[in-house]
């Protein structure tokens, strides 16, 4: 029999539904609204792992649920690191695809966060279509969006494995979260709601390559999630070399969207900026960046590029890194420069999945691209 050309659709999971969805489902099947509340309480407060454990629901309702929904957490293929260090989880999805999730302990100082909370770096797609020139996730192209359950499931599975609650989430794993806006928005609701996982909206950061229309849509949802922009260039000429998406939404269009964000959210955003020697590390770029950051109420997170043998880009020397960050701080911008040698957190973007897939012979990559993937991420 010939292999199907497209993978089977994901089975409907209990973790795909918001409370409103459950109310609608219960109503359709002739059950009162409070049944929906009981179901989400079993799922997110009591964290049961089967319908049989939902003992205040009738046998009939439990059987109906079992007919309609899957009830499995994401199975992980591999976990590296320990609970005291950055831990990487590789999950296999129902169609055999792999995604990664990175658990960052409080002492890893992610983006200067001193809140003493564990952060989870979550994936939103399998692969990515945007091909940022420093990032692993776009190497094999875009495969598909993650479902709501696959996004929420990363949090539930890691919490179950580690036994500790996640209190910070960054959408900086594989994929462009705003290209999967419908599922992202539902997942954010489940993650944030007091009937769900109950993570504060201000402790969830959505990082984007700069999809302007989607930034404007996300700005209008009534939730104070945070926004990070993978900027990496302060002028179109420079950013075009690093971020192909800039040819679709140039900086003027992007900044217009950020202004809409600020009009709605009135909060500080973050510009992520990988420093690359001779490409975007000049003080002229710093000057333009400082003006942009000031007018858009943004802080700047500088990440020195990891030099890769065989590729032309290089990491600027420390003096240039210091000059760049000092220029920004002297201009009154809140800016941090990642100085530590370890690159655990950067490894979040695509690296782990690529290693696994290559080991399994699923994809083969030329040496420079693999090297690029292992060294840099957003
Ligand atoms: S940085 Fe983000 S948008 Fe760009 S290729 Fe990587 S995952 Fe995609």
Structure at a glance:
This protein is of the alpha/beta class and 378 residues long. It is 35% helix and 16% strand. It contains 12 helices and 12 strands.
Could you characterize what this model shows?
With 378 residues, the chain is an alpha/beta fold. It has 2 domains: 14-68, Orthogonal Bundle (DNA polymerase, domain 1), CATH 1.10.150.530; 76-375, TIM Barrel. 35% of the residues lie in helices and 16% in strands. The strands form 2 sheets. A 10-stranded mixed β-sheet has the order 1-2-3-4-7-8-9-10-11-12, sandwiched between helices. A hairpin with a 6-residue loop joins strand 1 (76-80) and strand 2 (87-92). It is elongated, with a radius of gyration of 21 Å. The two termini are 42 Å apart. Iron/sulfur cluster (SF4) is lined by residues 128, 130-132, 135, 137-138, 175-176, 209, 230, 349, 378.
Q: What sequence of helices (H) and strands (E) makes up the elements?
A: HHHEEEEEEHEHEHEHHEHEHEHH
Q: Specify Rg, calculated over alpha carbons.
A: 21 Å
Question: Which ligands accompany this protein?
Answer: iron/sulfur cluster
CATH architecture of the largest domain: Alpha-Beta Barrel
Domain tally = 2
Report the count of strand segments: 12
Chain oligomer state: single chain
Query: Which CATH first-tier class of the largest domain would you pick?
Result: Alpha Beta
The largest beta-sheet arranges its strands as 1-2-3-4-7-8-9-10-11-12
**End-to-end distance, in Å?**
42 Å
Structural class: alpha/beta
Shape: elongated
Count helical runs: 12
Low-confidence stretches: 341-352, 359-378
Q: Mean pLDDT, rounded to whole units?
A: 86
Percent range for β-strand residues = 15-25%
